[in-house]
Amino acid sequence: MTTPARRPAADQALPDPDARCEVRCLHPQEVAQARAEQPGPADIEAASTLLKVIADPTRLKLLSALRTGELCVCDLSAVIGLSESAVSHQLRLLREQRIVTVRRQGRVAYYRLLDAHVTTLIGGVLDHLRGPVPA
Is the overall model pTM greater than 0.85, yes or no? Predict the structure, then answer.
């Protein structure tokens, strides 16, 4: 008795025939170079955590707003339409991951992106999404 072929679930895409090699081959030099340049496990874990923090839609809205420059919590609240308390909570998470930094002037807390790496990362993601779709 033969087992019927399993059909993919409705939410699963069929395998893309262009996504794999037609013949099995290895390129030893390329494999060795790629292995040598792999980050260590701690760096992979830290990068994964950072990307998860950024991936949250609310935090991405905050980061996108901060690309324009320094803003206080009240301004950020108005830009993204959340309470100041909710914005402060999200900013604390972003500070813990060294994505934003805070400057206090009297009783007002001003936030900005920590450095050019973060600005480039956020801008690159948004530019990638807006760019042309490859053929």
Answer: no
